[in-house]
Amino acid sequence: MIYGYPDRPSLLRGEELRLRVSTDAPAFRVEFYRCGAALTFLAGSPWLDGHDVPHHLPHQDWGRPGTGPDGQELPGWPVYPFPIPPDWEPGVHVAVFVEPGAPQYVRRTPDARDSTALFVVRSGPGATARILYKLPLLTYHAYNEVVALPRDAPRHRIWCLYTGDGVTLRRPGGGTGGTPWDIFNADPFDPTPRQTFVHWDAPFLAWLERNGYRVDHCTDLDLHRDPALLDPYRLVVSAGHDEYWSDAMRDNVERYRDGGGNIAFFGGNTCWWRVCFDPGAGDVTYGRVQNWHDGPGRPANLLTGVSFRNGGERDSHDHPVPVGYRVQHADHWVYAGTGLGDGDTFGDRRDEHLVGYECDGAHFDRADLARGRPVRASGDDATPPGFTILGVGDVGAGGWGLGNRAATMGTYTRGGTVFTAATTDWPRVLASGATPAVERITRNVLDRLG
Hints:
By secondary structure, the chain is of the alpha+beta class. About 15% of the residues lie in helices and about 30% in strands. The chain has a single domain, classed as Rossmann fold (3-Layer(aba) Sandwich). The strands form 7 sheets. A 9-stranded mixed sheet has the order 17-12-18-20-29-28-27-24-25, sandwiched between helices. Strands 2, 4, 5, 6, 10 and 11 form a 6-stranded mixed sheet that branches. Strand 28 and strand 29 form a beta hairpin. Helix 8 packs across helix 9. The longest helix is centred in the last third of the chain and has 14 residues. The two termini are about 45 Å apart.
């Protein structure tokens, strides 16, 4: 077994990638790949000495000495430095750890439960792309389980953010090379674990690259640390399941929007949990504190226009009735070229399930929905004035939901323009090519706002 992780999950070209690795093999080597339209091999390392080091607790920096669950002293994981070549193309990358005698095969996916570490190579100053894609690193880590050793214990203790008080970014996992919390709650349309890079972000980034959209990349941690990160870009894109946000992330994105920057949320359950970093751990350890609606009185609606509170969760295992969007305001620029009219639906075939796993909504009068009338956001859940509901997915009719029980796709302008697709499954349906309207709407948003 080999596990590893990067000291820093995001680097500039020319900087040094520092990988921490533990293996029960006497030696290993590293293969580096870029995750774009395909998984592209970049380089390989020579054989390196292997060291077998126990796992630490989930909130500890695994690169430093620590204390195990039974009070035993644990050494820090050894570091292996690799300079990032200046000619590597920016994007999402994976380091694959290979043991002696491992079978040789063509790698086609970054999906892995061990032997892999994910990191981002950023463009840095002078970037010319107009679109910045943010990876939900905090969501990856929130659902990433850690098995605390000793390995011979009769029952290992398993932690993620849902079973403990905090998690560190300096441990295996964080997008790939870990064990997702809901690995056994499989998506019937895609068997890869939902809370990993490969499930939603990889298909969306592959679609962008195949279709000629040039984007830069960052992680939640970059956005948390750097208030000026967004300044060079016209559009910030978030997709899939971007659930965990810090105060600084909210501050920096909302300041960017108010200054004229555009945002596109091609996902759902966005910005539901507010997290705080441990200042003594140097922005490495964080914990789930409270949802944005209850504690700080700063609902996600203020940013995205919608919230999980009025959407909900609907798994197609439990609720097989497919739900898509019913169109309203078909003359809006978001619908240009789709051929859709008011009252039409899209994404509701049995091979689509567009309003899927989790979705967000804005509150409106459901009596209007029942009568077939266009619905308007009431604003009593902090949805911004001027939010235009473009599509309604009635979760209450096809399963169950929270609050208003309806996914609401829409847009509003406050300085910059914000679009929300309001469902986690938008990237899956986009990448499948099953729904031309989803692709056309995605292009309209990217082309107009980016």
